[in-house]
Design a protein that fits this description.
- Helix 4 packs parallel to helix 6 (191-204).
- Helix 3 links the parallel strand 7 (101-106) and strand 8.
- Helices cover 25% and strands 31% of the residues.
- It has helices at residues 58-64, 87-96, 109-118, 158-169, 182-185, 191-204; strands at 3-6, 14-17, 23-28, 41-44, 47-52, 77-81, 101-106, 126-130, 146-151, 170-181, 208-214, 222-228.
- It is an alpha/beta fold.
């Protein structure tokens, strides 16, 4: 018999215990019957859950690697930089629920088409924005002040881009989650050096770094940095 339990103290995140005994992360599906990336749907007592694959989502990986505080919760506003096809963003949409909103910024028109088809077409709390995250002023007409910024972009200056967006959109005391891809910054240097430099950039821009989590074995040479301004 499939069982459901809250995952630690994270609002909107659950642990599904399958018949086999395997334990999986999950969120309640805000768009029942709709899959985003081929994830398994499980119904328990009339509620449909989407299994959350940590090998496809850096946020999911961070939860399993010991993230102690998740600023994404019911009713919050999120600016998501690097929405891609919407894998992780769709779980963010589930967590924040109908009272929240997530603005998904993506630069690639092809990825945006997939994102709209798979995610925003089925979810009223998702706003797709085709734009370059390096120029946050260009989507001022579409984005309001947010509680959280999540950044997952393949750029060499990821922390700076996140900080620039925070200057425009992050509320005082708001939180950020930065997925740092060392190989997108410099393939010739040790990843640990790059992680330290990106955290240093955040501190120089007024952020308090609360946690830096290595994401192996789910993602090689990646960390997720949680900070608060």
């Amino acid at each position: 018999m499939v069982k459901v339990r809250p995952f630690k103290n994270f609002e909107g995140v659950y642990q599904i215990i399958l018949d086999s005994g395997e334990r999986r992360l999950a969120t309640v599906n805000l768009a029942p019957g709709v899959q985003v990336y081929g994830e398994r749907l499980v119904k328990v007592k009339g509620v449909e859950y989407r299994l959350w694959d940590p090998y496809r989502s850096k946020l999911g990986a961070a939860l399993l690697k010991g993230l102690r505080r998740l600023p994404i919760k019911k009713g919050v506003k999120v600016l998501y930089l690097g929405a891609a096809a919407g894998t992780t963003l769709s779980h963010v949409s589930d967590i924040i629920g109908e009272d929240g909103i997530v603005y998904g910024v993506e630069f690639s028109p092809r990825a945006m088409r997939d994102f709209i088809k798979r995610v925003s077409a089925h979810r009223e709390n998702v706003v797709p924005i085709l734009a370059d995250a390096r120029f946050p002023e260009r989507y001022l007409p579409y984005v309001e002040e947010v509680d959280v910024i999540y950044c997952d972009i393949a750029q060499p200056d990821q922390a700076r881009i996140l900080s620039d967006n925070a200057d425009f959109y992050l509320e005082k005391g708001g939180s950020t989650l930065l997925a740092v891809k060392a190989r997108s910054i410099d393939v010739s240097r040790r990843p640990v050096e790059i992680f330290k430099e990106e955290a240093k950039v955040l501190r120089s821009r007024g952020f308090k770094v609360e946690a830096t989590l290595r994401l192996e074995p789910f993602d090689k040479d990646h960390v997720l940095i949680l900070s608060r301004r």
